[in-house]
Amino acid sequence: MAAPLNLNDLHFFVQAVEHGGFSAAGRRLGVPKSTVSKRVAELESRLGVRLIQRTSRSFSLTELGRDFFRHAQASVIEAEMAEATVRTHLGEPSGTVRMTAAVPTAQFVLADHLAELSVRYPKLRLSLHVSDRFVDLVQEGFDIALRSHQAPLPDSTLLQRKLATHPFFVVASPGYIRAHGEPQRPEDLAGHKAVTADFHGEPWRLVSIEGDAVAVTPEPVIAADEPMVMMKAAMAGLGVSCLPTSVCRGALAEGRLVRLLPDWTAGSITTTILMPHRRGQLPAVRAVVDFLSERLGNS
């Protein structure tokens, strides 16, 4: 009777696949590249099949390796859940939670809360990957993605948990208002300079608290597709701008920006947590999700 597979070998294999190679997996695990390669080779030898095609320049799964990876990953997660269940009974959540977020979401939505998360759960380690590229949670081994979006997210196999919705306000600096006057109606914006995301001339669609809608097109003087740059340009007095409250809340509170047309908003942006189903059951992941829901749900 063949000996059962070594769960540690499955763990090394899963880490190698999730991180795209033996070197990256070794850095993640804190072991030499040769250790990861050797353990995966022993796993293949025990199975009698090739799971990974590797050369000096490429690393890819065989067709059988892809099927094996899905089951191996599930087994590793189940083992993590079993260990986490015991740790939960012994004390607070612990272990590493891997999260990814786009740059603006990390800067404006997440960053201010990381210190409190660390204080609340000192045995929990958060690994945050900040990138504007599309990140595949399942294939890249992430536990959580924090995404801010204006259009609804597509249906997928991922768990989704809506955290907050941030309306867009029309804002300008006090200096700009002194120099150019304050618009009293949405139509007045057509005569104002603006800081926009692009020069395409798309009109701003404003909606009042009564539900009235008006489309206006101010004159763009600077365009930037990054909200921090847009906010700083508006604070410098270059023009009016439309910014979500997640971005401009602090500047408004400090008086560096002023909200114009307070009865009107220009759409909204939603922040949502996404999780692979199995990883969403891990106690450490649940602790982070519950914390973010508590801190961001009222923001």
UniProtKB/TrEMBL annotation:
<feature type="domain" description="HTH lysR-type">
    <location>
        <begin position="5"/>
        <end position="62"/>
    </location>
</feature>
<dbReference type="InterPro" id="IPR036390">
    <property type="entry name" value="WH_DNA-bd_sf"/>
</dbReference>
<dbReference type="GO" id="GO:0043565">
    <property type="term" value="F:sequence-specific DNA binding"/>
</dbReference>
<protein>
    <recommendedName>
        <fullName>HTH-type transcriptional regulator TtuA</fullName>
    </recommendedName>
</protein>
<dbReference type="InterPro" id="IPR058163">
    <property type="entry name" value="LysR-type_TF_proteobact-type"/>
</dbReference>
<dbReference type="InterPro" id="IPR036388">
    <property type="entry name" value="WH-like_DNA-bd_sf"/>
</dbReference>
<comment type="function">
    <text>Transcriptional regulator of the ttuABCDE tartrate utilization operon.</text>
</comment>
<comment type="similarity">
    <text>Belongs to the LysR transcriptional regulatory family.</text>
</comment>
<dbReference type="Pfam" id="PF03466">
    <property type="entry name" value="LysR_substrate"/>
</dbReference>
<dbReference type="Pfam" id="PF00126">
    <property type="entry name" value="HTH_1"/>
</dbReference>
<dbReference type="InterPro" id="IPR000847">
    <property type="entry name" value="LysR_HTH_N"/>
</dbReference>
<keyword id="KW-0805">Transcription regulation</keyword>
<keyword id="KW-0238">DNA-binding</keyword>
<keyword id="KW-0804">Transcription</keyword>
<dbReference type="GO" id="GO:0006351">
    <property type="term" value="P:DNA-templated transcription"/>
</dbReference>
<dbReference type="InterPro" id="IPR005119">
    <property type="entry name" value="LysR_subst-bd"/>
</dbReference>
<dbReference type="GO" id="GO:0003700">
    <property type="term" value="F:DNA-binding transcription factor activity"/>
</dbReference>
